[in-house]
Write a structure and sequence with these properties.
single chain, alpha/beta, Ubiquitin-like (UB roll), Translation Initiation Factor IF3, 2 domains, four-stranded mixed β-sheet, 5 helices, rod-shaped
Length: 205
């Protein structure tokens, strides 16, 4: 019986290199991406060989085609690394559930917060669920306080996707990761700080 192999690997992009390049004239870039200019293929090949590098056609549909003088093996490695990084970033996040009680003590609550933080760090959404049993449902405010404490504790790395609401005897809220929030805040504040410094220096002058 012949087994059919599934195509589970992404096909690599094909690049023409060196003598395999068809075009007789190329727009050539160096290894840093700086433009050398539009030159004949044989001249570009000579430049590449003199540096011990390859001439790689990176934009065959351009007019004239664009080629770079680079280390082809290193170039392929960087392309593969970039592809893996993009695949990892585009991986669909899962929804993880954290079960809470309306009368949790601080220690147990801290454990649940830590678990939720780990889920968010892995780019997962977190569903916060407070379950009420028996007569606990007559005091929904305690469950609301628990949800609010968890959301506040994780506000540095998450945002509220669904506000807390009741589904039967369960109080539910959804939060999702929001990375580098503090870094963005710093970046937003820095220009303003510089502007103030400039204003002060201008006043001194």
């Amino acid at each position: 019986m012949i087994k059919k192999h599934k195509r589970n690997q992404t096909q690599r992009k094909y690049y023409r290199t060196n003598e395999r390049i068809f075009a007789t004239e190329l727009r050539v870039l160096d290894a840093q991406g700086k433009q050398i200019g539009v030159i004949a293929k044989f001249e570009a090949l000579k430049l590449a060989r003199d540096q011990g590098l390859d001439l790689v056609e990176v934009a065959p549909m351009a007019k004239p085609p664009v080629a770079r003088i680079i280390d082809f093996k290193k170039f392929l490695y960087q392309e593969e690394k970039k592809r893996r990084d993009e695949k990892r970033k585009s991986k669909a996040s899962e929804t993880k559930e954290i079960r809470l009680g309306p009368f949790m003590d601080d220690h147990d609550l801290a454990v649940m917060v830590k678990r939720a933080r780990d889920f968010l760090s892995s780019n997962n959404k977190v569903k916060l669920v407070v379950r009420f049993s028996g007569r606990q449902i007559t005091h929904p405010e305690f469950g609301q306080q628990v949800i609010d404490k968890v959301v506040q504790s994780l506000s540095d790395m998450s945002k509220i996707e669904k506000e807390r609401h009741f589904e039967g005897r369960q109080l539910i809220a959804m939060i999702s990761p929001e990375r580098h929030r503090s870094e963005r805040t710093v970046e937003e504040k820095e220009p303003k700080h510089e502007e103030k410094n400039q204003e002060v220096s201008q006043q001194k002058v």
